[in-house]
Amino acid sequence: MATAQMSEAQPVRVNGREIPEAEIAREMQHHPADSLAVARAHAIEALVLQRLLIEEAERQGIAGADEAEDLGDDPRIAALVERAVQVPQPDEATCRRFYDNNRAKFRSADEYEARHILIACAPDDFEGRDAAKEKALRLIASLQAEPELFGSLAVAYSACPSRNQGGRLGALTRGDTVPEFETYVFSLEEGELCPLPVETRYGVHVIALDRKLIGEMLPYEAVRGHIAQYLRDRSFHTATRQYLMLLAGQARIEGFTIAAADSPLVQ
User: Fold this and answer.
1) Where are the domains of the chain?
2) Bridge-based pairing state of the strands 203-213 and 253-254
3) Class of 111-213 per CATH?
4) Cα–Cα–Cα angle for 71, 73, 77, nearest 5°?
5) Cα dihedral: 84, 90, 94, 98 (round 10)
6) 213: which strand partners?
7) Listed residue (75, 7, 1) closest to 253, CA to CA
8) In what order do the strands lie in the sheet with 13-14?
9) Backbone angles phi, psi at 116, to 5 degrees
10) Which residues of 180-205 are buried (b: 16+ CB within 10 A; e: fewer)?
11) What is Dmax (Cα atoms) for the chain?
């Protein structure tokens, strides 16, 4: 998001035409930020650029809705950008080079199937956490002696709804559970019981890994279309940003200074 400088006491004008405060206030709801000043700056920038685009569309004779209540919805803006911003489709060599340089992005997801017994406990209940860890250690000792008891112990002790499936969580990929849980799960071998209780925000877990499938590289042919679209979108974003800054540089803008090349209109 762009940063900008402005004077709140001074009206904001684009080529002599003032942007009303009511319009700025309406636009601010579309630009949530940590402070009203930042939200106001983003809103003003968006309105300034919208005005510049509409004025340029009018200059080029592009027909559209006159005096639209929301300038951002004016069809002349889309028509102008489509006319003014042309980016080529990336060629095969460019797509292949992006694939080769970003191979980590093109792997199938790691997948695992695990079971757990959750002994629920609030993060700030320190005495409860100690008791939960002691209970988990007793369960782990029982399972080390008799692994086949996992399902029945999950039914008896787990606070997770998965207890009804013997603690089974089903097929999961990275990001489906909290990081500390996944760290332990992916350190296990298939069929292994974690020898330590695992703490998360939800409580203390007893974990066993049933199956683990590490993702593989996707072939270039399977992702070529996605790469081409990504590269074209990136080029379009850059070209649109440059076009907006060109219009801003040619305009007379009072009460506001666009201080960076990025814009909320092209995100």
Assistant:
1) 4-91+223-266, 111-213
2) unpaired
3) alpha beta
4) 80
5) 90
6) 111
7) 7
8) 17-18, 13-14, 253-254
9) -150, 160
10) ebbebbeebeeeebbeebbbbebbbb
11) 83
Type of residue numbered 3: T
DSSP the chain: ---EEE-TTSPPEETTEE--HHHHHHHHTTS--SSHHHHHHHHHHHHHHHHHHHHHHHHTT----TT-SSGGG-HHHHHHHHHH---PPP-HHHHHHHHHHTGGGSBPPPEEEEEEEEEE--TT-HHHHHHHHHHHHHHHHHHHH-GGGHHHHHHHH--SGGGGGTTEEEEEETTSS-HHHHHHHTTSPTTPBPSS-EEETTEEEEEEEEEEE---BPPHHHHHHHHHHHHHHHHHHHHHHHHHHHHHHHS-EESEEE-SS--GGG-
Q: Which two tokens stand for residue 72?
A: 């951002």
Helix pair angle (220-250, 36-59), 10° resolution: 80
CA distance 41 to 161: 48
Rounded Cα–Cα distance for residues 196 and 198 (Å): 6
Give the residues across from 111 on adjacent strands: 173, 213
The pLDDT tens digits of the residues spanning 126-167 come to 999 999 999 999 999 999 999 999 999 999 999 999 999 999
User: pLDDT of 162-221, one tens digit each?
Assistant: 999 999 999 998 889 999 999 999 899 999 999 999 999 999 999 999 998 888 899 999
